[in-house]
Amino acid sequence: MVMTYPLSASFLPLPLAVLLLGGGTLPLIGLLAEKTGLRRLKELWAIAFSTLNLISIYLLYQELRASPGRVIVSSLLGSPPLAGCFEIDTLGVYMAGCVALLGFLSVVYSYHYMEEESRLTEFYTLVLLMMAGMTGVALAGDFFTLFVFWEMMAISSYVLVAFLKHRWAPIEAGFKYLIMSATGSAFLLLSMSLLYGLTGTLNFAYLSASLRGAAPTPWLLLLLSALLIGFGVKAAIVPLHTWLPDAHPEAPSPISALLSGVVIETGLYAMTRIFYLIFHPDLFGVMMAALALITMTFANILALLQDDIKRMLAYSSIAQMGYMLIGVSTGTAYGIMGTLLHVLNHSLMKGLAFLAAGNIVYETGTRDIRKLVGVGRRMPYTVFSLFVALLGLGGIPSTNGFISKFILFSSAIGAGMPLLAVAGVLNSALSMAYYLRVLKTLVSTPEEEIEAGEPPLPMLAVTLFMALLIILLGVYPSPAIRYASAASRALVLRLESYMEAVMGG
What we know:
Layout: E1 2-4, H1 14-36, H2 41-65, E2 71-75, E3 85-88, H3 90-113, H4 120-139, H5 143-161, H6 168-199, H7 204-211, H8 218-235, H9 244-250, H10 253-278, H11 281-303, H12 309-330, H13 333-364, H14 375-378, H15 380-394, H16 400-414, H17 418-443, H18 457-475, H19 478-492, H20 495-504
Helix pairs in contact: 1-2, 1-4, 2-3, 2-4, 3-4, 3-10, 3-13, 3-18, 3-19, 4-5, 4-10, 5-6, 5-10, 6-8, 6-9, 7-20, 8-10, 9-10, 9-12, 10-12, 10-13, 11-12, 11-17, 12-13, 12-16, 12-17, 13-15, 13-16, 13-18, 13-19, 15-17, 15-18, 16-17, 16-18
């Protein structure tokens, strides 16, 4: 079932139009704020448009929910397979919703966290444009449209990683991220060239009709390898992860939350969507399983060695990507549901972990775990929030992380990969070693009383709200499971209806 937006209406889907409008007008709003003395106008503008983005995602979800299997096609100056377009289904809206939720919370958190920094107009403009890039990737219907928004996301995130440029470390981290991500983008361009040469189109539905189920050939294997490298850099899959442990700690904490909570997941989402559209899971399943094992084990071991709390959380993010790859490797709707559910849960858990760590850094001025002994006695609500986030990341029952990990590991058993499930359980146990080390340090009795207190109310309120969501989705996960299940079916079980909707339109 297809709906095509008339050209008299907006070519862009509403969530994307909202974010581009907000980011595009923010420089003028910043100038107006300077001229009128309304110092907080730019922050309020960013909060308003991130709120509108959430609302527009909800409206789009309700529109799709009324007709299961529906695809909304929006194209300009033509129609598929040649025109650039958006092909919006439940899966794309699910990913865009994860971006909208964490983006809104991070913008609200930034209201006080960033108030002492200069260049805030630039900061909020880049945040909205980075969110627009991720939303565009989620809703894209062809490789060219995806690549345009992929680069918008990438360029915005490069600058945000290096935003605190009065120190050398963020500049170095941003430059390293730029070099590695640009290399990944070059491989994506190579992939696009191969795809167009093989099929004569870059539209996802037409690519699926042309290539899915084709016998493996050297060209097809080259295409698979180029796509894996191109998306794998952004998704921080080992051994393509080396930019992440430098970039995440050096970025401002709300940007660390976005990078870890949704940017790397956007790389995983794009890889998963295109792999399942173009290739049969038998072609990449074993490779994904091997990468899952290597990624989660390697990252958990290195996380044990870290004394910088944000660097430890960065390695934890890499490990979490390994768990998500388990679902991708199964080739089943159940496994993909586990991956998508963990995308949502991880965005909340790791977003909260970085924001709670941001509260601690904001008050104490240090990221060194060894210097944070007893800080929990001065910041009980912040440390409680961090406690909830870390237990969720470890997969403790009554948190949302337990639910998605249970589905991921059971999907591996159902797909005939019990050893991968055992490795996932053992790695979750291993991760609790460094999570509990942090929690023990924060609540221990200090030799000297540490000077700290709870952060400003908006920062604290965001972290407590996210902690509540983690617990709520742990004890009542049905809504999230239902939505993730619908999104996974759109990718795995309704692929033919997706192609028919687009190609018929």
